[in-house]
């Protein structure tokens, strides 16, 4: 009898995990239309994923719908939380101060931390003016070459 209860609990847990909806509800605009109609126009999701709910409470119906390719900011917001964005390779949701692929520079300049998180490399640093990211190892190699040339 005990084994039967454990098995039943395990099966129910598997169903709960298999259909995990988004953790964060988002709004796709005005009104109270179905999210599947409103959100799909301007808030793209990876292939195989779809929106559920009614405005203004929209969420990804099943966050397990996506593989780790062609992710979007909308998917990351709904499935991970508002501070999550898709990385520059579009294969992982990361915690960044702003979007990695749709950053509005007037509002959110790049920082060293965001460059490293979004690009997945400790070698990335922000430009001095925050307008983008550069590969720090390339700069270091340039200076070493420059110093070698000066010493000749």
TrEMBL record:
Signal peptide region: 1-18
InterPro entries membership: SerH (IPR009670)
One of the Pfam families matching this protein, by short name: SerH
Lineage top rank: taxon: Eukaryota
Keywords: Signal
Name of protein: Cell surface immobilization antigen
Organism: Tetrahymena thermophila (strain SB210)
């Amino acid at each position: 009898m005990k084994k039967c209860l454990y098995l039943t609990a395990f099966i129910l847990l598997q169903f709960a995990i298999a259909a995990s909806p988004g953790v964060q509800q988002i709004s796709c605009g005005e009104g109270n239309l179905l999210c599947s109609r409103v959100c799909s126009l301007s808030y793209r999701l990876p292939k195989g994923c779809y929106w559920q709910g009614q405005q203004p409470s929209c969420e990804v119906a099943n966050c397990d719908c996506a593989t780790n390719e062609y992710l979007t900011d909308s998917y990351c917001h709904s499935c991970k939380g508002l501070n999550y964005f898709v990385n520059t390779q579009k294969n992982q949701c990361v915690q960044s101060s702003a979007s990695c692929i749709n950053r509005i520079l007037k509002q959110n300049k790049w920082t060293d931390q965001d460059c490293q998180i979004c690009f997945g490399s400790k070698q990335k640093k922000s430009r001095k003016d925050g307008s983008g990211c550069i590969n720090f190892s390339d700069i270091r190699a340039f200076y070493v070459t420059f110093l070698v040339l000066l010493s000749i």
